[in-house]
Amino acid sequence: MIVDCHVNIWDDEHVLPHYVSGTAMARHGTIGTVADMDTVYAAMGGVDKAILFSLRYHDSAGIDGNDEVTARAVAKYPDKFIGFAAVDPRRPDAMDLLVHAVEDLHLKGVKFGPIYNGVSLLDPRMVPVYAYCVKHNLPLTMHMGTTFAAGTPIQYGKPTDVDEIARRYPDLKMIMAHLAHPWAEECIVICRKNANVYTEVSAIFYRPWQFWNSLIAAQEYRITERNKIFWGTDFPFATVAESIEALQTVNRFVEGTPMPRVSQETIDHILYSNPLDHWWHGGFPG
């Protein structure tokens, strides 16, 4: 079973002009602006399940999505999609929207981007979000690491705040997206020491040297064998096929050298990891 744990969804009207200009700084290749539910469904043909969410990053990355687009996709393709709510704690109605997303739209987790929303994980506005997640058994996926978007507070993307929140809320399942690049080793050691913290590898492979180094560190700290690191694409920023190929060929740059190898066991642990067994207390609620 292959689960893509990080898939973005939005309708065309959610894409603002500065998203198109800003992504030019992120990556050339498969980045696109089209991520409606039918496009996403077609793109996810190579996986069994996909966890998807829209983004409320209107003033930073230029996507102003909503939870309704996520819920409609899940309703149309329930055998493929699992939906997460998006939270922007700056909004006065943030908790009302979250309650609606979970209790009316039946979304199963929460997505938050501290660097994009300009809100630290330690900000008091996050306290009701954490409490609600714990009460309703909702995993919290966080964009950790850097971004292409100008004007974002880089310190909020660093993983050290996750360590503090993990100790304050030991029953909160937290997932650091993108291995918190470029702070992957900090991300890995925080995952290792906190039973409630996980990470994933979406959108890392197109920096191949960083990708290889990060997976070697994950292997040496043995978090892969403990089911702490998961696989995803970050579609439309990468496709399923290239994300799988990059993981399976991660050692290609060190062939013929004495450098260590990412083992096949590590590769398989990541590719066939199943968040549905781990991110919810008692397993995915269905």
UniProtKB/TrEMBL annotation:
Gene3D superfamilies (UniProt xref): Metal-dependent hydrolases
Residue stretches making up the Amidohydrolase-related domain: 3-276
Xref: SUPFAM superfamilies: Metallo-dependent hydrolases (SSF51556)
Molecular-function GO terms, alphabetical: carboxy-lyase activity; hydrolase activity
InterPro entries reported in the protein's UniProt record: ACMSD, Amidohydro-rel, Metal_Hydrolase
Keyword Transmembrane: no
Keywords, in A-Z order: Lyase
Protein name: Amidohydrolase-related domain-containing protein
Taxonomic source organism: Chelatococcus asaccharovorans
